[in-house]
Amino acid sequence: RIPGEMKRFASLLSLEDKFESLHLSKVKDGVVVIVPENVHISTPNYLPSFASPFEHVYVVAKSGSRISLVHHEQSTLVEGYHSSAVEVFAEKDAHVTYVSLQDFSSSVTRFAFKRARVSERATVDWFWSEFGSQLVKMDVSSYLQGENASSQNVGVYLGTHSQVLDVDVRAIHTHPHTKSHLLARGVLNDS
User: Fold this and answer.
1) What secondary structure letter does DSSP report for 13?
2) Could you please report the per-residue DSSP string of 103-118?
3) In this predicted model, which residue has the larger pLDDT, 111 or 105?
4) Rounded to whole angstroms, how far apart are CA atoms 132 and 13?
5) Residues 129, 104: contact at Cβ < 8 Å?
6) Using an 8 Å Cβ cutoff, are 20 and 14 in contact?
7) How far is residue 151's CA from residue 160's CA, in Å, rounded to a whole number?
8) Out of 8, 16, 68, 172, which could bridge 97 as a Cys pair, Cβ 3.0 to 4.6 Å?
9) How far apart are alpha carbons 131 and 186 in whole angstroms?
10) Does the pTM exceed 0.85?
């Protein structure tokens, strides 16, 4: 029997997408964070770097809760493929801040999926950086599915030489009175 909080696991990823499907079929490492109702965690929580090339972070912030998570994504991979997924479920009046710092080797191909379902009066703030990898394909999406839900998506990237960066950031507004802020800035250097 699957506990109630885990029933939504992988529900923000699509089996129709070949890279998301590959991720789900291979994921071996991950972390589950469940913040109880009305619990406010004031200090940032640092997530571990995972040894596996397929990692998954699953966050459920219950009603009225608050948490900040920091994930320094680094790997011992010198070259190869890395896939990471983050799923955040912010229930009514919850606030989740997720900070992601990536600095893989320049020979790593990286696919990253960061998704949030944001309920009524809840907030999810994404702050991310992409400083490594030869190819980065990243999707950061917030689904604002409750009145007065909000999301902030702020990121920076540094591209060098023949590095390829494909970053999609979006907020999908499905209810009235929702708001979002999207900002991505980068520097490209071919010298």
Assistant:
1) S
2) ---TEEEEEEEEEEEE
3) 111
4) 24
5) no
6) yes
7) 30
8) 68
9) 10
10) yes
Helices (H), the chain: 18-26
On the 0-12 / 13-18 / 19+ scale of CB atoms within 10 A, 155 is buried
Strand partners, 109: 81, 135
pLDDT, tens digit, 9 for 90 and up, residues 29-46: 788 899 999 999 999 999
Distance, CA of 78 to chain centre:
23
Task: State the amino acid at position 132 in one-letter form.
Answer: G
Tell me how many degrees the CA angle 133-86-140 measures, rounded to the nearest 5.
70
The kind and range of the H/E element at 83 are strand 79-90
Q: Residue 92 — φ and ψ, nearest 5°?
A: -45, 130
Burial of 161 (0-12, 13-18, 19+ CB in 10 A): exposed
